[in-house]
Amino acid sequence: MPWITKVRRGVPLPQRPLYALARRLLRRNAEPVGRRPMAAVLALVLGCTLSIGAFFTVQGLYRAEAQKRFEGSAAQLTGAVGQSLERYVEVVNAVGALFAASKQVDRWQFFQFSRDTLPRFPAVKSLSWVPWVPGEERAAFEQRARDDGLFGFQFKEPGQGAHSVPAQAREVHLPILYVEPFEGNDDQLGIDLAGRERDLDALLEARDAGRVTIYLPDATFGPAVPGFVAVLPVYRTGKVPATVFDRRRELLGFARASIALPDLIASSLPGPAAVGGLD
């Protein structure tokens, strides 16, 4: 049966045992009297084989198309998120410009600025100002903050459980002085980031580099959902000093934004059906 051999060579490997079965049946029933029943059996076997082959062929094409769509969608999403991230950096740049223009920004000015700015950046869960405070100026700084209306303000750090304790004495303190939205973030006020290794390393890196630094927050402090923190150093000169020595000497503080990743991704897309293949 040369035509069976020819068909057999043209089908995918998983279907070849069906053709072998058909050939064994043909050899076993080669008498003329069995031709009519065997023709039906052969037709059934070949029909099943062709159906299975067609199924795997269509499935393979579908998977290839789905993979192609997914890869295209993933690339599109990555590009959109990258553009959104660049746009969100504008938030800390704007805070930096606010403090660079006016070295003394009170909490009401910061509130008004945040109220006008944050609605355009829904992924920002908290926007804060973190001043650079030498250790010998701590007491006077805390008192000025209390006089400004932040009753009971003090530099603090996590204690046991959910309670905070006064921050230990340090050469330099990095307290969160202002934070918006205030509701839901008020417990961040006074937290001394100089006592948190990951935050301190990122802030010092940003200070010396003179540019925005993005990092993952400490596991016990930051967005309740997956996200990251962007910080920008602000200098008394209103611009980035030329040398690392001058950057350290002229540092005023840091603009800091906690950004939730799911909201950043959602805000990157023009609509729920904008990118297919990811649902």
Describe the structure.
With 279 residues, the protein is an alpha+beta fold. Helices cover 49% and strands 15% of the residues. The protein has eight helices and nine strands. It has a five-stranded antiparallel beta sheet, with helices on both faces. The chain has a two-stranded antiparallel ribbon with strand order 2-5. The protein has a two-stranded antiparallel sheet with strand order 3-4. α2 packs antiparallel against α3 and α3 (35-101) crosses α8 (261-268). The protein is globular and about 70 Å long. 25% of the residues are buried.
Count all strands and give the number.
9
Estimate what percentage of residues fall within beta strands.
15-25%
How many separate helices? 8
Q: Indicate the radius of gyration in whole angstroms.
A: 34 Å
Q: List the helices and strands in order.
A: HHHHEEHEEEEHEEHEH
| Biggest sheet features | 5 strands, antiparallel
Terminal residue distance: 50 Å
> Structural class, from secondary structure content?
alpha+beta
**Portion of residues within helices:** 40-55%
Contiguous uncertain segments of 5+ residues? 1-23, 28-42, 272-279
Q: What strand order characterises the main sheet?
A: 6-1-9-8-7
Overall pLDDT, averaged? 76
Shape summary:
globular
